[in-house]
Amino acid sequence: MLGAEPPGSRGDPREVTRTTTRLAAVGIALGLAGCATQADLIAQERRLQSQISDQRKQIQAIQRELERVRGDLDVPVQRPPQEHVMTDEERKQLEAAKHPPDQEPPPDAGTPPPDKTASVPPPPPVPPPAPSEDVWARDVSRDQAAMAASNAPERADLAPIMDNVAKKDCGKAVGQLNSFAAQKKESPLASSALYWAARCYALKGDRNQAISKFYDVVTKYPRGSKAPAALWEQGNLFIEIGDTPDARLALGKLIKDYPNSEEAGRARKRLTELDR
Questions:
Q1: Where are the domains positioned within the chain?
Q2: Roughly how many angstroms between the first and final C-alpha of the chain, as a whole number?
Q3: Residue 55 to residues 14, 25, 112, 193: CA-CA distances in angstroms?
Q4: Fold (topology level) of 135-275
Q5: What's the pTM value of the predicted model, to 2 decimals?
Q6: Which tens digits make up the pLDDT trace of 156-183?
Q7: Would you list the DSSP string of 175-210?
Q8: Is 114 left (phi over 0), alpha (psi -120 to 50) or beta?
Q9: Short-list 73, 65, 68, 52, CA closest to 9
Q10: DSSP code of 103?
């Protein structure tokens, strides 16, 4: 029959194409020969179109199957990984990377690590804090040593008075010091007598009298050894009584007139504290 499927055509795209071509040629030939009626030609055309549609579907199915097979062939074959056997050279390199030359290798299993603290000597014991120095005793001792090194003949008269000062026996010593300063005005030790008389007044709580005596030390003996110390003590007494302006004047004069003295350094610090 004209519409029957040629044998051997299913599954081969090239054969399907050739069969379709032959059927189309037969239909055209019949139409040209005039052997078929108009109805026969229309029916033949419909059968040809149906066969062509079916054949196209078969071709598309075959193409999809070919693509699936081709894709299956492209999948790489998975093989189980093989265990790598480390060589002696690789093992040495690994050990060298774990333990650089400047580090000690770890101790063997079962061997306790060395006690490094045993070789480190313990820190020396911290000495207990020294008791606060008695400023009064320190200052008296310095002046007694200076008087002992002096060539002034009056030192023999002032030495026993300073012994009372060292004992803080100011009730007895203050009168003796004033008498010595009044009688020995030209002595290089007169400024020391006035200075310690002022310290005794301050110790007894008579700050105003002490300030006045320190003033005498500075005005009467500005080049004496006790002038810087007198200004220092005077400035501190002004601070104690709340007279900050006069304290600044006294400490400022100390820094200006005696910049290289020990008391000048302390005066600079004290003025900084007052400015806070």
A1: 13-69, 135-275
A2: 125
A3: 11, 17, 87, 140
A4: 1.25.40
A5: 0.54
A6: 999 999 999 999 999 999 999 999 999 9
A7: HHHHHHHHH-TTSTTHHHHHHHHHHHHHHHT-HHHH
A8: beta
A9: 52
A10: S
